[in-house]
Design a protein that fits this description.
Length: 420
């Protein structure tokens, strides 16, 4: 037996795979974390990859707006914010003139989480606001070439200097997270997000692709309309530790991070499997089913048709999105669901579309803390109490000789099947 430990919330669970079935573990490159991430971040801020330095942008007395990721992202804001704030203080910016905007997009967040996101000291020192995509106080800043009306957070729009922070990683329809995504969807209005996300049906709007990706194009144009002055983005290893930081002008900074992500997380493989055991990567990727789906999406191209994906994700917050739940109940066929999404796009409905599309190709066995009622009756999944019980069930269905792949950090990597 081969024992493989895979992330589950903040711990790990072990799966035992028979030697004769085991094809291997798919991981990104093993990259050691930097010894002093704060020093690396500070050096990056002082030496941007492109564009002007903060010294050339910031003037004493300026009002500064800094966007951070919410708690559904692994971005180490607790490391980035102290480095940025210390630099701004050195440039004559007082704490009262710095506003932190939690770029929650359509997620919900609360000020109670700020101690975890940016640390207790900075959560008290700085002005902190949670972005509300339904707010009546959003500012209209223009329209993209694709027709998206861009409404953004008023604190960001009205600031003298606008800074984005976050991590760059793979994303299943924007191509990559980071950079421009900290404007759209992070601090945009619901109408803007809905218009942008309609473009996910385009075949080029997929994981790890920017070429012809109109979701990305639309996001980039929205961020340019928002007049972003400076970006601080990190790239993390699968253990969510900092391995590099890029800062400076938005587009070139983002592309430098994308290049590193490709080197680390696009993994060539030679053979598909009948059974793929997958974890999104533990917390925060497996906080709910809505977030955990990213792990499924990453491995769909390496599991055989009519194969089985075993999704190991705690889902401590259940399914995570009310629209996702409602649409899975309401629509019985993917054709009807897709038609409705095209008629009136609703965030959450798109995740129902992706899940139903995946279920046309594979069975999914979920190992989680979510009640079976939701997993089975609403989301059309099978369930198991443990990953080993799930594997035994999968082998009974697909046969005792079925080949098995294990992907422990699927939300952050992209297996690429090599053409023969």
């Amino acid at each position: 037996m081969v024992e493989v430990w895979i992330p589950y919330n903040n711990t790990e669970v072990v799966v035992k795979v028979p030697d004769e079935n085991f094809l291997g573990i798919i991981n990104g490159k093993e990259v050691k974390a930097v010894d002093n991430p704060s020093e690396v971040i500070s050096n990056s801020i002082d030496n941007p990859v492109s564009g002007m330095k903060l010294e050339e942008i910031v003037k004493s007395g300026n009002k500064i707006a800094i966007v951070i990721d919410d708690e559904t992202r692994p971005s180490p804001s607790h490391l980035i914010i102290p480095c940025l704030v210390n630099k701004l203080n050195q440039l004559g910016i007082e704490d009262d003139n710095i506003t932190i905007i939690v770029g929650s997009g359509m997620h919900s967040s609360s000020l109670d989480k700020m101690k975890d996101l940016i640390g207790e000291v900075y959560s008290k020192r700085l002005n902190v606001v949670i972005h509300d995509c339904d707010s009546k106080d959003l500012v209209h800043i223009g329209k993209t070439s694709l027709g998206t009306e861009v409404y953004i957070n008023k604190y960001f729009a009205n600031a003298d200097v606008r800074i984005l922070t976050g991590d760059i990683d793979l994303h299943y329809f924007a191509g990559y997270g980071g950079g421009r995504k900290s404007v759209l969807p992070a601090i945009c209005g619901i109408k803007t997000i809905q218009q942008n996300h309609k473009f996910l049906f385009n075949p080029n709007s997929r994981t790890g692709n920017l070429d012809g990706n109109i979701v990305h194009k639309d996001m980039k144009e929205a961020a340019l309309l928002a007049d972003v002055n400076f970006v601080v983005n990190v790239v993390l290893n699968p253990q969510k530790e900092v391995i590099q930081c890029f800062a400076g002008e938005m587009n070139q900074t983002f592309l430098q991070g994308v290049k590193l992500v490709d080197e680390m997380y696009k993994v060539p493989i030679d053979e598909t499997a009948s059974i793929v055991i997958v974890s999104p990567g533990g917390h925060p990727y497996d906080v709910d089913l809505y977030q955990s789906y990213k792990g499924v999406d990453s491995v769909l191209n390496i599991v055989k048709d009519n194969g089985i994906i075993i999704l190991v994700a705690e889902c401590s917050q259940g399914y995570g999105n009310a629209v996702f739940y409602d649409w899975m109940l309401k629509y019985k066929t993917i054709t009807n669901l897709k038609r409705e999404l095209k008629r009136k796009f609703v965030v959450g409905g798109h995740k129902a579309y992706y899940l139903m599309k995946a279920l046309e190709k594979v069975k999914i066995i979920l190992v989680s803390a979510m009640p079976d009622y939701y997993a089975v009756n609403v989301f059309k999944l099978q369930t198991a109490k443990s990953v080993n019980a799930a594997l035994n069930a999968a082998l009974r269905i697909k046969g005792k000789k079925s080949k098995i792949l294990v992907v422990p950090y699927a939300a952050t990597i992209l297996p690429i099947l090599q053409e023969k």
